[in-house]
Amino acid sequence: MLKLKQLQQQKQAAQQAKAVEQEAAAAATNGGDAAATEPATNGETKSTSTTPHAAASLMAKYKASSGKKEEGVMSLSKAGGRNKKRQNAVELRVQKDLAEMDPVPGTEVDLPEVDNIMKLKVKVTPTDGLYQGATFSFDLDIPHNYPYEPPKATCTTMVYHPNIDLEGHVCLNILRADWMPVLSLGSVIFGLMTLFLEPNPDDPLNKEAAQLMIDRPRDFERNVKQALQGGYVAGKQFPRLLK
């Protein structure tokens, strides 16, 4: 698995996580009333990047389409629906993650279902390295016990990469054994970018690609370029991602 060496602002993340968990606990106790007091935004509905303004627009898009649904959730919560309370607390945490996310150059985040903040689309366009200039799409599914369980990332763009197999499974340490509740969606998106900036062959999913990267790095680089240009590698044709 890729060992991230550059996870930013760990101390700040821990402080934010503590504040989030306090708010989540309040939301669970009060039936989600805390979510109803979230500040409104200007309601933009365009596809968003990971700037604070864009994250606010994404949440405005979600809230505008799910306001009636949220009212129903709060009513059920007050009637004793514990699952609904927990769900609302998780959504509050996701909203906070998005609002406080530091920009990650070369990434975009969007809601494929405007009334479901638990499913995100992430586009990663590496700014350096072998995969520079190509764009890779990921589905990010957030579990109902987030942040105690990590999101699940699936790469929907076929790619020749030691840490991503041809079915789109992703090998990233913070999405598995190294996940901690103090980490955030911003940490995950940063990690997805780092996969392309620093591919790691030591604990791979695509073992053939990883072994080639170790034994014959020039041949590995040639395969990456051929795959990005829509060519055949190891008997598979890849989508054209570069001109």
UniProtKB/TrEMBL annotation:
Keyword Nucleotide-binding included in the entry's annotation: yes
Biased composition (Low complexity): 1-28
Alphabetical list of SMART domains matching this protein: UBCc
Database matches in SUPFAM superfamilies: UBC-like
Biased composition (Polar residues): 39-52
GO MF annotation terms: ATP binding; NEDD8 transferase activity
Region listing for Disordered, in residue ranges: 1-71
Signal peptide limits: none
Keyword hit for Oxidoreductase: no
Positions in coiled-coil regions: none
Pathway linked to the protein: Protein modification; protein neddylation
Keywords (A to Z) from UniProt: ATP-binding, Nucleotide-binding, Transferase, Ubl conjugation pathway
Top-level taxon of origin: Eukaryota
Active site (UniProt): C171 (glycyl thioester intermediate)
Domain UBC core: 89-233
PANTHER family cross-referenced by the UniProt entry: UBIQUITIN-CONJUGATING ENZYME E2 (PTHR24067)
Family, similarity comment: Belongs to the ubiquitin-conjugating enzyme family.
Protein name: NEDD8conjugating enzyme Ubc12, putative
Organism: Acanthamoeba castellanii (strain ATCC 30010 / Neff)
